[in-house]
Amino acid sequence: MADLTIPTDLLPADGRFGCGPSRVPQAAVDELVRLAPTVLGTSHRQAPVRAEVGRLRAGIRTLLKVPEGYEVLVTVGGATAFWDAAVFGLIERRSQHAVFGEFSGKFATAAAAAPWLEEPVVHRAEPGTRPDIVPVPDGVDVQALTHNETSTGVMQEPVRVDDALVLVDATSGAGGLPVDLTAVDVYYFSLQKGFAADGGLTVAVVSPRALERIARIAASDRYVPAFLDLATVVDNSRKDQTYNTPAIATVVLARAQVEAMLAAHGDLDGVVAQQRRKADHLYGWAQARPWATPFVTDPAARSLVVATVDLEGVDANEVSDVLRANGIVDTDAYRKLGRNQLRIGMFPAVPLADLEALTASIDHVVAALG
Ligand SMILES: *Cc1c(COP(=O)(O)O)cnc(C)c1O
Asked: For site-directed labelling of 220, which of 237, 248, 283, 356 has its Cα 20 to 30 A away?
């Protein structure tokens, strides 16, 4: 069946619908090529690269309406490394984790493994749903939330429920979901999802309270590996630098993307409005098909950036294989979820027209397979 041909007039202009990484717009790649002679292969301690880091930080500040007193940090290693940095440098004694999928679970696991911390409180919800965010009676000093659980397509608005620092993994949500950063102390994300870049870097928007926590733990006698030391991240970021060599292409691609988002939509509200149109199309399409259903039953929890759609009576792997053979790639479900499902990246770099073409292509494939 993989030799089934989707008519070219149905196909999207760009067939990349992965949820990690996002497609990278050709315009950003062109910008990277333009800057290559002066930026790639040059020192990250010199002006050309630092200017790119500075523009990235400024673009994020504008897009996310970063409150007065908050700082935009850039560090090496992606969200996975940032969890370890937070275990060393942000959790003082005990954290609570809202766990509703693979990624939120990994941070909880990292905190549980640290012998200098108390056992974290884990507040779990079934995949496809989200837990309530609740205070802990005898106290935690970090509330670990996830803006968008990429493995399941569930989003959760960050809220502050107690005095703990609110840490939000926004790797797939940032730049595509609304956020009020006054309710957040550390909003951190890798750049290969909403910001359509390559992997390897993390941006963290940190509040004055979080900066104070970082400084206090760094000054304590807790051992912190140099690579994960957030106080060093703060010092370097203030100079538009990183502790060790960053992925320079990632900086340029993300800078190009954040500036493109601002140029196209004005601000985050404009981007989010477009995300809503895309999500309405995708979920509306699924609901109108007898063989498809949005996996997330609560409409308010359905992600605006990652759509998960269960199929019935048709094999999702077979559909994804046919799509792949026709140049539409990475529509597979999250591997560990084990459902008969399509998972579709609707990140800001994916235009509505391509999602419309995608659903028309899936209709064609399902009709042909049936
Ligand atoms: C992709 C993803 C991560 C992991 O990001 P890396 O840059 O690969 O470490 C963490 N959290 C969420 C929510 C993600 O979507």
From this structure: 237
Cα 175 to middle of ligand 1, angstroms: 14
CATH class name, domain 16-24+267-369: alpha beta
pLDDT tens readout for residues 186-220: 999 999 999 999 999 999 999 999 999 999 999 99
Q: Does domain 26-262 have CATH number 3.40.640.10?
A: yes
Of all protein residues, the one whose alpha carbon is nearest to atom 5 of ligand 1 is 79
Which tens digit of pLDDT belongs to each residue from 94-118? 999 999 999 999 999 999 999 999 9
Q: What are the CA-CA distances from residue 208 to residues 46, 68, 128, 171, 184 (Å)?
A: 28, 9, 34, 21, 11
Q: Side-chain half-sphere of 195: how many Cα atoms within 13 Å?
A: 32
Give the distance (Å) from ligand 1 centre to CA of residue 165: 20
